[in-house]
């Protein structure tokens, strides 16, 4: 800390019980205020021997346990101590992690030995990530709940141009108002949101992403081709997510092809 001038990089390690979303939000907001510090990405380390136990832990009132939340928020997931468990256990852990987070990159290692090039300069929260995100989103598939946790990855694609004002309403209903429910009446809780959207009258592809209640919409360096069909690709990670309802709401409230609202989002009906 006695070094003069700017730091090249800051690695902030939280405790094993911390919610990284709260810490990430701090730096994300700081960047919006013009700080030289920007949020590069969230890295979660999972212990191969005890990872499944922590992910399967049940909390009172159906709350999401800390380990699951940390995996759901991660841009990079490092499975450590792979030499201490049988191949079958490692495969089960890998499946559990992927069922929670279908977008994050997974690395496996021993004794925490990881090439720093895989950890630094992730650019997971800025417009530069839009270039790699475009390829990632084409290969992300929806996941099924694992270990009796209702945390899943949901993804869909919707053609058309999104209206920026309506897009904000759609996201705010999910993240702020928390009034969107699944078909069976359960409240949807979005932990992480990421996607590429086409905004009406904008030449650039836009990246949208959110962590808990915070979200941002930013231009990427990628332009839409004049003759290309514009489309929107979104990935949600969270609890009780209903792909059909989310897509229906998105189409009805955001895109030019949408014709009417659905009844899955109601004012005044906030989830507990």
Cα gyration radius (Å): 19 Å
- The number of helical elements comes to 7
Structural class: alpha/beta
Query: How far do the termini sit from each other?
Result: 43 Å
DSSP summary, beta strand count: 8
Largest sheet: 5 strands, antiparallel
Write down the overall geometry. Answer: globular
What's the mean pLDDT score? Answer: 83
The succession of helices and strands, N to C, reads HEHHEHEHEHEEEEH
Q: Strand fraction band? A: 15-25%
Strand order of the largest sheet: 4-8-5-6-7
Give the % helix: 25-40%
pLDDT < 50 stretches? none
Q: What is the structure about, briefly put?
A:
With 272 residues, the protein is of the alpha/beta class.
Which terms would index this structure?
single chain, 272 residues, alpha/beta, five-stranded antiparallel β-sheet, three-stranded parallel β-sheet, 7 helices, 8 strands, 27% helix, 22% strand
